[in-house]
Amino acid sequence: MDFFSNLALGFGIALTIKNLSFCFLGVLIGTLIGVLPGIGPVATISLLLPTTFGMEPVTSIIMLCGVYYGAMYGGSTTSILVNIPGEAASVVTCLDGYQMARKGRAGPALGISAFGSFIGGTLSIIGLMLLSPLLARMALKFGPPEFFALMLLGLAMVTYLCRGPVLKGLVMALAGLAISCVGQDQISGTTRFTLDSITLMDGMGIVPVAMGLFGIAEVLTNLEQIVKQDILAERVTGIFPTLKDWSDSMWPIIRGSFIGFFVSILPGAGTVIPTFMAYTVEKRISKHPEKFGTGAIEGVAAPETANNAAAAGSMVTLLSLGLPSSVGMAILLGAFIIHGIQPGPLLIAKHPDLFWGTIASMYVGNVMLLVLNLPLIGLWIKILKIPYNLLFPLIVLFCFLGAYSLNNNIYDVLVMIIFGVFGYLMRKYEYEGAPFLLALVLGPMLENAFRQSLIYGDPFIFFNRPITAVLICVSLFLLISPLFKTFSQKRKTIEKVLEEGE
Amino acid sequence: MKLSIVGLLTGLAVAVFLCGPGYAQEDVSRFPSKPITYIVPVTPGTGTDLSVRLIAKEAEKFLKQPIVVVNKPGGALTLGTAAIATAKPDGYTIGFSGGPPLFLTPLLEKVPYDPIKDIRTIMQYGGFNFGVYVKGDSPFKTFKDLIAYARQNPKKATYGTVGVNGMPNIMMEEVAKREKVQITHIPFKGTSEGQTALLGGHTIFGAGDFSASLVEAKEIRLLMMLKDEPSAEYPGVPTLKELYNLPYPMSITIITQRNVPDAIVKKLDDAFAKAMKEPAFINGMKELQLPIIYRSGKELDPYVLQSYNYFSKALKEMGAIK
Questions:
Q1: Is B172 part of any domain?
Q2: What one-character DSSP code corresponds to residue B139?
Q3: What is the pLDDT of residue B22?
Q4: Which domain, by its residues, includes A268?
């Protein structure tokens, strides 16, 4: 069959010594920047791009793709160990990952992330390879109204993100939406609430806000309490997930792979939204949703799998239509074109060596990442044994470096500090950061899609298009269902009281 | 004699340096002594962004310093332009300009910079192939067909551009006014978002930048070029000038802060002019289907002022501004 000869051609290219070494270099750099908070794959690929000019196109693309999916492996490490999301796509991992670490289960958490990433990555490459052209056409069905509905669905997931009262979660989501209005509006270019600051014209940066809300706030909270670290450190047991962990995580990993891959194909979805979705789905269908947020391994496995699956999924529209679905992909598009290759409908026909070589290298790269990351777990866990009076200043230092390195802009550091204090106050009054951050990510996209849809001039546009109507109904259901739960609980108590009364 | 003048000037420069305030201006002869930031106000991956990356890579050889390309998209290109206009006037922050953020948007919106007082042009190295395009399987074969559809279906002809009051938006509205038809504008964040919507059938046509690969693959079809002169890359496609006698003054230029010293601007101009002659740049621009055109900053600053005055007049006539 044609397909196997193509794949053989791909492996023939990917397995040369030169391409193997550049693939390794790519995934190694990816892992490192994933671990470091702040600097992400987008910045790294744009910095590395000029160094690849002299290389053969396929070698260069293999390396740059390696950076992109490699970063998804590394991102979970700091989320789990110290509650600082390494990338925006690892914010959800903080919720349960850090709680697992606090219970001495950092090893299994890191282990399941690595295995989940491997499985998610590999499954989605198969999807990318077999279904690309077909899926890209389907993704085009998403116009502004469908996007609005998708973002609304994302926002409705807030009800499942919070551990505490739903109302407090919704308050935080509204606050996030309000803050997301800061900056230049993308439709008419009007500046809003920027206080004449050029930094704020770009809006509140997601990464500085996330590092403030999670990392800095965590340090501040811990400074207040005298944490008995010896308990934490000594209870570190086992590096690898146990059999029970595996049976708990198996389905979340499979579901995470599918959600990550399919959602990320939609233009604009990126890698953040699929992770939130994967987490929400697990919490929704779990038999013990109350365990989520206290260190449930499913809450780590699903999003960490999803972000790796999303890394391959977001390449679908790029490779088959030449249209990047996220900023990271846009940079990769640049890399293609600068090497004289136009990604688009003719890519596979015109450059089969490049297409199949890159696909094959992604299989190889994922194996390398697994081999690279598993031994590192033992090393990472040792971080937890660092005394807090050393660890906390180091965390703060890395947060500062990370925030500054984003745009070499000191005001990003200021934003991080402000949100650190804000995050500390939120914790004191038991409000949660995840709904806030989700709303901040979705806000601008939600607003743009809403305004674009209304320009069509039909107020019912959200209901007479099938995809939109279904998504909006699901969102409404998600928003209302916690109410029913409260009602039925209340009814039960009333019935109980009545029965007892009789 | 010549030597003594040089000596005198050097002596004077040293004196100024020693007596001047704590931070005297950097010695021009040593420029550049650190990496240069090249701000691009559009999303990465578009043709214009890639042209910047091409020329920046070649110019590095002549400036002997790395050039860091930074994308700051948004707000009809004004976000990035503002960053260039407010940068320190030391020549280490330069940027891409296509024109509209200099002579169009400031007329319509309150922007945090003055295009004439805050910005100067270093040089021009290229032009644009902007166009009006429809989906490959669209029934519209010519621009006339599209206008005929718009006439029969008021407001149904939706089109995507990269922002309200961007040049494609203004010119399309001007064309619609002349043809007495109503068309509906849908602004997108970037060229790829707009093209995605077009391919998905969410808009009828698009105006502005486009991917050459989609034209080649017949996924999109060009109906009109938004240019003054016919395009060598797309022969046979009529221009806006031919059809409506409307100007479309757009060019790929490098701009910087107004107060950057002449000597530094000259150094940059020379380095980029040399970079334009490198085969890698010439081939790259061919790959991107962008025309190569050189003009010096001296010619361009009056051109910006002239365009500013033209649009100020045109917009007043259109009733868009008072």
A1: yes
A2: S
A3: 39
A4: 2-501
Number of structural domains in chain A: 1
The answer to whether residue B240 scores a pLDDT higher than 90 is yes
Taken in order B25, B26, B27, B31, the sign of the CA dihedral is negative
Boundary of a domain, candidates B244, B272, B297: B244
Predicted confidence (pLDDT) per residue in A319-345, tens digit: 888 888 777 787 788 788 777 787 888
- The pLDDT of residue B76: 65
pLDDT tens readout for residues A176-235: 999 999 987 777 767 788 887 767 877 888 888 988 998 899 889 888 876 655 545 555
Where residue B200 sits, what CATH number does that domain have? Answer: 3.40.190.10
Residue B176 within any structural domain of the chain:
yes
Q: What is the mean pLDDT of chain A?
A: 85
B312 shares a domain with B235: no
B141 and B218 inside one domain: yes
- Interface ipTM: 0.81
> What distance in Å separates the CA atoms of residue B169 and residue B164, rounded to the nearest whole number?
6
Say whether both B77 and B222 belong to one domain.
no
The CA distance from A35 to A16, in Å, is: 28
Report CA B182 to chain centroid distance, whole Å. Answer: 28
Domain, as residue range, for B119: 31-126+250-318
Any domain includes B20: no
C-beta separation of A415 from A207 below 8 A: no
pLDDT at residue number B19? 42
pLDDT value at B186 more than 50: yes
Most confident of A162-176, A233-247, B153-167, B174-188: B174-188
Asked if residue B232 and residue B171 are part of one domain, the reply reads: yes
**Smallest Cβ distance to B79: which of A202, A324, A455?**
A202
Q: Is B295 helix (H, G, I), strand (E, B) or coil?
A: strand
Residue given tokens 């279906």 in the structure block:
B153
Residues B122 and B54 in one domain: yes
Number of domains in chain B: 2
A182 touches chain B (CB under 8 A): no
Partners of residue A448 in chain B, C-beta under 8 Å: 189
Asked if A308 and A73 count as a contact pair (C-beta separation under 8 A), the reply is yes
Of B50, B83, B158, Cβ closest to residue A456: B158
Q: Which residues of B touch A191 (CB under 8 A)?
A: 75, 110, 112
